[in-house]
Amino acid sequence: xxxxxxxxxxxxxxxxxxxxxxxxxxxxxxxxxxxxxxxxxxxxxxxxxxxxxxxxxxxxxxxxxxxxxxxxxxxxxxxxxxxxxxxxxxxxxxxxxxxxxxxxxxxxxxxxxxxxxxx
Length: 119
Fold this sequence. Notes:
The structure is a single chain. The protein is mostly helical. It has a domain of about 70 residues. About 85% of the residues lie in helices and about 0% in strands. It has five helices and no strands. The relative contact order is 0.13.
């Protein structure tokens, strides 16, 4: 009877591990997030974050191929988060650049208007 309790615990622990599906959804999500960041010019505006995302995605894919699903899942989540950060930083930099351009246009128009009103 004493031997059955540890065996039962081992069986339950193995069954709990086996219930997690492979992290294919996480890998797919990470891949899409990296692509989205690429399309937002993250190489220009957030190079560190996009490189971290690409590296984590490669490591996640390698871990999956090696059967290390837990590592693959964690790395895929890291890749997606890093890619999302790269995307957000890129969009922010683009918005700030556009804002600066619009402010310069407004300043130029104000200057022209003031020159036209006071010849």
